[in-house]
């Protein structure tokens, strides 16, 4: 399996509770390396662009409102099979269905306020990383 990169976001529900360090520790203990990281607050336009794939879903507007409600931490994670690995570490979208020991089981509040985002394919990872970081900000 090749070394891969994925985009991770620590969402506003987690920055609000000051648990970014706990989440980063779980990512690192899961075998991923943080090779880029920044704390930002998205404008509505930035969130709408990032989640454009979901624009016809019923939860789109609420999701954009939530993701702009406070600071977020954008990260590029690197490791073997990083996209799939990160999704294993995060657990299911709905924290109630997330497996024991996953980030969402541990910290997620509900299906929307689920603490983390992770790219869902290597192709989307490349797009999301390019949207959020300049190549010069990524140090592997
Ligand atoms: P993510 O993109 O954040 O890694 O999460 P995911 O792939 O597991 O879930 P996805 O279907 O892509 O949904 C993106 C985010 O939208 C919010 N959501 N709300 N109210 C709802 O039914 C609902 N469903 C999804 C969550 O914040 C989810 O992570
Ligand atoms: Mg998704």
Automatic annotation (TrEMBL):
Homotetramer. This is Nucleoside diphosphate kinase. It catalyses: a 2'-deoxyribonucleoside 5'-diphosphate + ATP = a 2'-deoxyribonucleoside 5'-triphosphate + ADP; a ribonucleoside 5'-diphosphate + ATP = a ribonucleoside 5'-triphosphate + ADP. The gene is ndk. Major role in the synthesis of nucleoside triphosphates other than ATP. The ATP gamma phosphate is transferred to the NDP beta phosphate via a ping-pong mechanism, using a phosphorylated active-site intermediate. It is found in: Cytoplasm. SMART domains: NDK. The keyword Transmembrane helix does not apply. Residues 3-140 form the Nucleoside diphosphate kinase-like domain. GO terms for molecular function: ATP binding; metal ion binding; nucleoside diphosphate kinase activity. It comes from Dichotomicrobium thermohalophilum. GO terms for cellular component: cytoplasm. The active site is at residue 117. Its EC number is 2.7.4.6. Keywords: ATP-binding, Cytoplasm, Kinase, Magnesium, Metal-binding, Nucleotide metabolism, Nucleotide-binding, Phosphoprotein, Transferase. Its cofactor is Mg(2+). Signal peptide: none annotated. It comes from the Bacteria. ATP binds at residues 11, 59, 87, 93, 104, 114. The keyword ATP-binding applies. Belongs to the NDK family. InterPro entries: NDK-like_dom, NDK-like_dom_sf, Nucleoside_diP_kinase, Nucleoside_diP_kinase_AS. HAMAP family: NDP_kinase.
């Amino acid at each position: 399996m090749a070394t891969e990169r994925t985009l991770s976001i620590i969402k506003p529900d987690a920055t609000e509770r000051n648990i970014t360090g706990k989440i980063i520790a779980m990512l690192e203990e899961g075998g991923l390396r943080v090779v880029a990281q920044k704390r930002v607050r998205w404008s509505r336009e930035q969130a709408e662009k990032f989640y454009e794939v979901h624009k016809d879903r019923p939860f789109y507007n609420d999701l954009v409102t939530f993701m702009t409600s406070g600071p977020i931490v954008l990260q590029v994670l690197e490791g073997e099979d990083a996209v799939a690995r990160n999704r294993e570490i995060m657990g299911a979208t709905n924290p109630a269905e997330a497996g024991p020991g996953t980030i969402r089981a541990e910290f997620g509040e509900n299906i929307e306020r689920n603490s983390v985002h992770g790219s869902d394919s290597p192709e989307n990872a490349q797009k999301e990383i390019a949207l959020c970081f300049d190549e010069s900000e990524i140090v592997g």
